Amino acid sequence: MHLVVLILFSIFYGYHAGTFTVDYTNHQFLKDGKPFRYLSGSIHYMRVHPGLWNDRLQRIRALGLNAIQVYVPWNLHEPTPGKMANYGQVTLQRIGTNLISTLTQIQEPCQQGQDPINFEQLDHAYGYVLYTTTLANGGKLLTTPHIADYGYVFVNNVYQNPSGIVVGHNGTSSITINAQAGDTLRILVEERGRINYWNSYLPYLDRKGLHTNVTLDGIPLKNWYSCGINLTKTAVDSLANSVINAPESLDFPIKVSAAPGVYVGQFNASQLQDTFFDSTGWGKGQLFINGYNLGRYWPLAGPQITLYVPKPYIQQVNTVILIELVGAQQNYVNFVDHAIYH
Fold this sequence. Notes:
Helices cover 13% and strands 35% of the residues. The protein is mostly beta strands. The protein folds into three domains: 76 residues, no CATH class; 117 residues, Jelly Rolls (Sandwich), CATH 2.60.120.260; 121 residues, Jelly Rolls. The strands form seven sheets. Strands 8, 9, 12, 13, 14, 16 and 20 form a seven-stranded antiparallel beta sheet that branches.
């Protein structure tokens, strides 16, 4: 939309090379250094003969509008389906011994406090934050009443399957674990996106992370370490290289993938084409291709089973990384030439 708006400015105002910025302090747009208010309209250009486009734009401008929003019907610009590639099956192997030990290799500097620190206070906008505390007493009922959005619970780096997920936003906030005094409790919190509206002036209602009042058998848990997980391309590539550049390949029994972990594999592409990642047989997690984050998969929830992988991310030799949060049924993935839905 921004590109379209800039193009229309050149139509409405000539080819003057002006400036257009956002004044975040005063919550306004600035055009050529002066406050500017959008008065936008919408046009379906595909319904108007191209010879009349200039006339319609002039009429819109005469009405007092200074910006245009358009809908692009890609089915008209690309009337035939694009060619997709079936790259087939890719075998994966786990990096490290468990999910937690691997993610700590790419964690950001931790902050310590009596209570957990949320994403915003850590200046960690998205992804995951790992919360760690040492238990002074044992217990069974872990309660996290203010978690956002999903938490994955580990005791001594062992995932508390099958009830290891705690869910915020009016979902399940208590699970049963088996913990002893001196055990290390870790909760990996995943944010699932942020709302783009709120009922107050500031978006503080959509804070992410593990908040206060975490209890074990009703006793508050204190002294937490809060650590953001770095998911930049450089960090993700470093995990892959630790396995790919190893002198010997690691053994990878099929049963190993039943646990959460970070998994890596490679495939060759003789022709570079769009493709689809098929998450069938895997649990819940995140896909990276050549270090680029291509989104979350959760086949049980759906509706999409596949993730679209655009051609620009495909190389002759490709590295696949999965951050698998709950465990899988197999040690391979497939790249197919069609989308799959529930």
